[in-house]
Amino acid sequence: MRHEKAALLLELARALASTAEGLTLDEMADRVGVGRRTAERMRDALRELFPQFEEIEDPPTRRFRIPAGLDALFQTPDAEELGALRAAAEQFRAAGARGRAAALTRLEAKVLSAMRAPARRRLAPDLEAVLQAEAIALAPGPRPFEDEIVLRQVREAIIGLKRLAFTYLGGSTPGRRREVTPLGLLFGRSNYLLAAEGEAGEPRTWRLDRLAEVGVLDRPATPPPDFSLAAFVDRSFGIYQDEVEAVRLRVRPHGAEEALGWRFHSTQEISPQPDGSVLIAFRASGMRELAWHLFSWGDKVEILAPQRLKDMMAEQLSLALAVHQA
Fold this sequence. Notes:
Helix content: 40-55%
Low-confidence stretches: none
Structural class: alpha+beta
Radius of gyration: 25 Å
Distance between the termini: 68 Å
Order of helices and strands: HHHEEHHHHEEEEEHEHEEHEH
Strand order of the largest sheet: 6-5-4-3-7
Shape: globular
Number of helices: 11
Largest sheet: 5 strands, antiparallel
């Protein structure tokens, strides 16, 4: 028990050292999964252990932080953490996400180079054992385009609040030069830039593999004040955006257990039924992509609404059936 308490105290110290604005007592309690009174005792202990411990007045509350960071003695990673970092890099690389794989590989090198040589030697056998004992099963699917130079320019425009110019090789007028306000990046089966064209254009997605001659312009580009990337993503099922509709699904009893552990959408409401089935309701756009996903559930899922989704599923099934019967 004493060891567990020390580990929690160290975890909280790392959290306080990694934040610029500090954490409130409630945030501290939530971060390490303890009650408020326990968080108060841990705060007092850390104040004694770290002379640089700071309290920041933020009415109606206070925030706390350790501004000078922690000594390397407290920051040495273990084999599980480094194994997870290596596995994430390999997963990105296998999926075609070369840019993010390279970023994680550079991060791993920085972490290892910051460790003392004896600590690296002690860690090496355990790390090798973790890597040999774990593997990632990749689902079949498209390999998303990820060019480090394109990503670097897009991120530079987003961070610097500048306009981005490129020749777009897709859409209704391939080869047309575009100038947009970049709003974010969406990673998935394909990778997209989310951006608005024109002064009051609606946000739309642009496939990264269709961007050519990309350049950051020396002109300001301010996102709409009420824009939220998370809210934009929550509107759709996957990437595609169209009319937001109320979706209702019935998962039959033989698929209910799987559905209870499945995340269909961030707004979903799940209601188990007396007959063993499960009703799932959420609001989203992107009915075509949703129909593609529901196809993988076979006879476990019945579409109750909207009618457009039912029609789209029937159309896709008819096309597939016609090909295979022929």
